[in-house]
Amino acid sequence: MDLENGLKESIQKWSIPIKDISDLDGLAMRASEAKYVLLGEASHGTSEFYTVRAELSKKLISEHGFTFIAVEGDWPACQAVNAYIKDNEDKRSPEEVLKAFHRWPTWMWANKEIASLVGWMKDYNKTVPEDKKAGFYGLDVYSLWESMDEIINYLRKINSSELQAALDAFSCFEPFNRSNETYAISAGYLSDGCRKEVIELLSSIRKNAHKEKIDRENALNLEINALVARNAEQYYRLMVMSDAGSWNTRDMHMAETLNAVMDFHGKNAKAVVWEHNTHVGDARATDMKKAGMVNVGQIVREEHGMEDVFICGFGTHRGTVIAAGQWGAPLREIDAPPAQAFSWEDELFQAGDEDKLLIFSDENRNEFAKEIGHRAIGVVYEPDMEQYGNYVPSSISRRYDAFIFLSQTKALSPLAIDSGI
Length: 421
Hints:
single chain, about 425 residues, EreA/ChaN-like  fold, 2 domains, nine-stranded mixed beta sheet, globular
């Protein structure tokens, strides 16, 4: 039996057809045994990745007691959503609240698919006690300036003794005029940057927050914004010097933030995490390991054990996707061509042009362990060039615990939001 036919036959043997969302009930039940359920995506612009993750998340929250959803988004913008879904008196529409996502690429979270999920979460939270309300949090590191604003505004609001220290710390950043690129070049090549200032501020906030008698949710918000400031400073300082260093800083920050939110919710907390496959699929099962890169999936597995972590990857064979031709450019709907021959997505297609689910176990994991190219589409995408960088060599059954294949997909539905880079 040759390799290609062997993999095709293994897919046909072990895959479960997906014809209705109820066909994922078994996956939700299996995933619910873990404390951390990581749901991936092969692009940031595919509608079905969002809608299927939303349906799985609803099941995990309403039927299996999961506590919150944490996403590859900015903490301050996600906090606007978190506050909205927990406030019964806030009568705004989800679309109005999602205007908080004004930094490019806005479409990742300001879209109709997320608006529908946010509306569901708000309605769900009206039916449960205050301490059982589901949360929505952002794990990413990019919001350096927004997080600094949040810290200053909150400390000023409560007339905190920490305000002047925060103002002094952030005065270091003033010459860079809120430009990530300017700070990155200056701190990376010309100086030590503002590292000392943000480290000391985070330490001070953690040490003195209890003295301010801040309620728990606001204390968490203050601490995470300070954590973002510290780690974003490092991320941008490394950005111009080391791809692996900046990548690792970002993913370690996301894992650290996830841990902080879990600690906040207590020992019975259970998390659903939404991020790109490149972040949730264990980096040790890809060529990222050779480059010295780690990711959230690897870190969470290492810190909490394989039995408490369930990772589900997503992929598609062809369709349309929202992306941009270069960083900061306007979004556009782009045709994603059929997957490259002999890639993981092509093998799934050759095994049958239908949506399907694979769940990996001790019984079948070896059949899907051989390294194979696995497509990844980012916010910047040029289909004509994808053979040169969009396929990540991966051992699929080591990278994930399950995989959802949606054969033909369509583009996400962005909301009209004014975007800044």
